[in-house]
Amino acid sequence: MFRKPVMGKTTAAAEGDVVVLLIGMRVNHFWAVHQWVPVMLSMFRMLNELARDPARGLLSRVLLTGSPRTYYVVQYWESKEKLYEYAKSPEMFHHRAWAVVNRKDRAGKMRGHVGIWHETYIASEGSYEAIYADMPPIGLAAATGVLPLEKRGRYAADRFAHRSAGAKAEKAG
After folding, report:
1. Contact 22, 74 (CB under 8 A)
2. Do residues 97 and 42 make contact, with C-beta atoms less than 8 angstroms apart?
3. Helix/strand/coil for 34
4. Per-residue pLDDT of the chain in tens (173 residues, 90 and over written 9)
5. Sequence-ordered strand ranges (E) for the chain
6. Which residues does residue 126 pair with via DSSP β-bridges, in sequence order?
7. Which of 26, 47, 59, 166 would be a feasible disulfide site paired with 143, CB 3.0-4.6 Å?
8. Residue 149 contacts by C-beta under 8 Å, 6 or more apart in sequence?
């Protein structure tokens, strides 16, 4: 009914650098629902805000759980500049949410009931590769599209060696 197509062996159609943001929360005290539910709802609100405005630069995201306590989102961004722009924009919910966190922290009201974290990685072209076997687009492939595996090479070394037309032109020039 809701099946996504399965496509044999594919690779991500990514060109250039890839920006990956891991962002999440850990419930430190389950009974402190009033502390961690707002954090979770804030993440969903930010994701909805970004989904409504693709020009902000979020290409794709995957919601994951590491345990009953840990929830996170893997996000793929168009560029680090777009990510920074969203994070700092006073019109966006992220800016207001962090203002609340910072006020609570300065007032000594962060009680340790919920932990929040993020890590950002910028993988330059030639520093990443992907293979998907009988999978619908997920992760980087959902963010950038898919290609038949043969387009980038059967082996990981071939896919790592791939350079986009722009990168080849820069190297030649």
Report:
1. yes
2. yes
3. helix
4. 566 666 789 999 999 999 999 999 999 999 999 889 999 999 999 999 999 999 999 999 999 999 999 999 999 999 999 999 999 999 999 999 999 888 988 888 878 999 999 999 999 999 999 999 999 999 999 999 999 999 998 888 988 898 888 766 666 66
5. 9-12, 18-27, 58-65, 70-77, 114-123, 132-133, 146-148
6. none
7. 59
8. 8, 9, 10, 11, 131
